[in-house]
Design a protein that fits this description.
This protein is of the alpha/beta class and 126 residues long. Helix content is 37%, strand content 12%. It has four helices and three strands, in the order E-H-E-H-E-H-H. It has helices at 23-34, 52-66, 87-100, 115-120, and strands at residues 11-16, 40-45, 76-78. It starts with 10 loop residues before the first strand and ends in a 6-residue tail after the last helix. Mean pLDDT is 85; it is low at 114-121.
Length: 126
């Protein structure tokens, strides 16, 4: 999970309703907290595999686990990829979370047309 997360601003946290909160869920949440990720959402997937009562319990468990974390209050969207139920809601919620999240400054990004990028392409700097 740690590979390539340096520029992460928003997390899409996925929990399967059929499995509930797993040890990996806790590990991933701890990593997000260490990285300072404060914006995100939860996709509660595989809703079609559980009865309505189990789905409510799974959602409550996710909300409880997130309550004392950096993702406290993050929206939880129930979805089922087989039927497509909730998938549009996941997209819309993710768009909203991305729009609301502050942008992190880019550190040490090469300027457009920089000498380093020109050399990589085999051209002399202009």
């Amino acid at each position: 999970m740690l590979a390539g997360v340096g520029a992460v601003e928003v997390a899409l946290f996925v929990v399967a309703a059929s499995e509930g909160w797993m040890p990996q869920s806790e590990e991933h949440l701890q990593i997000l907290e260490l990285l300072g990720i404060r914006h995100g959402m939860v996709a509660l997937t595989k809703a079609d595999l559980v009865d309505p009562e189990t789905l409510v319990v799974a959602q409550l468990e996710v909300e409880e686990r997130l309550a004392a974390s950096s993702l406290a209050g993050a929206p939880v969207v129930v979805c089922d990829s087989r039927s497509g139920e909730g998938v549009d809601d996941v997209r819309a919620t993710l768009d909203a979370v991305l729009a609301a999240a502050p942008r992190r400054p880019t550190v040490n990004a090469p300027a457009s047309g920089s000498t380093a990028s020109s050399r990589r392409r085999g051209r002399a700097p202009s």
